[in-house]
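Hi V.,

Quick status before I head out on leave. The structure for the redesign project is tokenized and pasted below; the design run finished overnight.
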């Protein structure tokens, strides 16, 4: 770490207490001290209490001429349903480098969803004496990024349903155009910037609403969304089985507009994937506008830009784009930002957080979700291609438990006791599982 870095001493207890007990007994440094030690200026922070803060993106401009540090990705062999300890290894490696070897290091990891936190899987702050703290804040709400995604996503869903209802209730194209682009008190009509974007998409090179022909007005105003082509459901950040499939539009004023919909978990939203891949607020605005939310009756994609909500969604995300600064149990700095799943998105923390960390630290330890065959490969093939960053080291986490499972051991089920094969020595099972580790090593070496 920098010369003024002071590690937080651990109070090691035997037998080792639970993760929660360790986290609650921890001594935390004020977040302003964490920031000062890593070289973040106070005016570059937005404080959320004494132990967490957001980092303003302007810091990248100040640090643009500073060389990047070493980029380390922690991944794992094909995991069991219990997980193999990637986050614990990521945090532990950072603590070893920073608190014990005196290196200038930062941890960058994903923010967890409340769904798994309240389920069998639990939180994602690490474990034992290798955790991000305050652990409760890390696992619950943090600074509200996921709630911002929920609001932005559901705004788009509401606009989509409202647009379909109004178009069905307004068969006259001229009246629909008047509703979208009404005259002001002086009798003048003006297109908003998002309307001009739609006109450009339609190939209409006009900026004055009064110059549009009746045919052009109809094309502009009527999205003609196919009710069976809606691809945008609603989201929430808890597991609520009863809301997975629902009927909406059952009110009296919505009669005739009933249709099936449902809720997904917030971190499965495309907005979460965009948050993790974006490089600026302007880039986020463009990406949000390109999201396909439905198809029209001719099979053409309908985007958030067509609905006119991309700008409003960007405003809702204006603070979520800023990475969150926290600390490990031994007082090394950590950035927590974004949390897309690897099975439906790319499963890595944000590009912005990595870029900030690489300017501040000599070593940046990040983590890619799931096993190396999905999380690491998406880290390389998606995240690094967008960011232009090249990792220096891959750390592959392997456990005896996972190797035994891949060697033909009994099924591992979350929430149920492990079979005796996993708690007793069984070298034959272990040896039969080694090809899984070998293949992951071979895959990682292909990127080197």
């Amino acid at each position: 770490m920098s010369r003024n870095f002071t590690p937080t001493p651990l109070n090691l207890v035997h037998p080792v207490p639970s993760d929660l007990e360790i986290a609650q007994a921890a001594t935390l440094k004020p977040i302003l001290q964490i920031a000062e030690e890593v070289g973040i200026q106070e005016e570059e922070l937005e404080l959320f209490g004494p132990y967490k803060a957001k980092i303003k993106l302007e810091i990248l401009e100040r640090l643009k001429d500073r060389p990047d540090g070493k980029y380390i990705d922690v991944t794992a062999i094909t995991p069991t349903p219990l997980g193999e300890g990637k986050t614990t290894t990521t945090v532990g490696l950072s603590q070893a480098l920073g608190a014990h070897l005196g290196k200038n290091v930062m941890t960058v990891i994903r923010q967890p969803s409340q769904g798994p936190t309240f389920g069998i899987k639990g939180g994602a702050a690490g474990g034992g004496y290798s955790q991000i703290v305050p652990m409760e804040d890390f696992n619950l709400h943090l600074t509200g990024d996921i709630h911002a995604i929920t609001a932005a996503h559901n705004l788009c869903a509401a606009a989509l349903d409202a647009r379909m209802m109004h178009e069905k209730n307004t068969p006259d194209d001229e009246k629909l155009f008047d509703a979208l682009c009404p005259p002001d008190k002086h009798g003048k009509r003006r297109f908003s910037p998002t309307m001009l974007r739609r006109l450009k998409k339609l190939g209409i090179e006009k900026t004055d609403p009064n110059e549009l022909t009746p045919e052009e007005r109809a094309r502009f105003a009527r999205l003609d969304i196919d009710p069976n082509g809606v691809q945008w459901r609603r989201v929430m950040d808890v597991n609520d089985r009863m809301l997975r499939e629902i009927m909406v539009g059952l009110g009296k004023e919505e009669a005739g507009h009933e249709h099936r919909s449902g809720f997904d978990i917030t971190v499965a939203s495309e907005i979460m994937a965009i948050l993790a891949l974006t490089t600026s607020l302007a880039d986020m605005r463009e990406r949000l506008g390109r999201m396909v939310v439905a198809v029209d009756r001719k099979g053409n994609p309908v985007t958030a830009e067509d609905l006119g909500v991309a700008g409003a969604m960007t405003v809702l995300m204006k603070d979520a784009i800023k990475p969150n600064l926290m600390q490990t149990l031994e007082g090394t700095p950590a950035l927590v930002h974004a949390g897309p799943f690897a099975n439906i998105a790319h499963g890595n923390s944000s590009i912005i957080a990595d870029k900030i960390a690489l300017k501040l630290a000599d070593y940046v330890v990040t983590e890619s979700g799931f096993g190396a065959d999905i999380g690491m490969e998406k880290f390389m093939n998606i995240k690094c291609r967008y960011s232009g960053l090249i990792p220096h080291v891959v750390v592959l986490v392997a456990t005896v438990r996972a190797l035994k499972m891949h060697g033909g051991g009994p099924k591992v089920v979350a929430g149920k006791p492990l079979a005796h094969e996993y708690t007793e020595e069984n070298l034959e099972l272990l040896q039969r599982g080694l090809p899984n580790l070998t293949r992951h090593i071979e895959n990682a070496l292909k990127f080197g």
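Above is the designed sequence. The chain has a mean pLDDT of 96.

G. will cover questions while I'm gone.

Best,
W.
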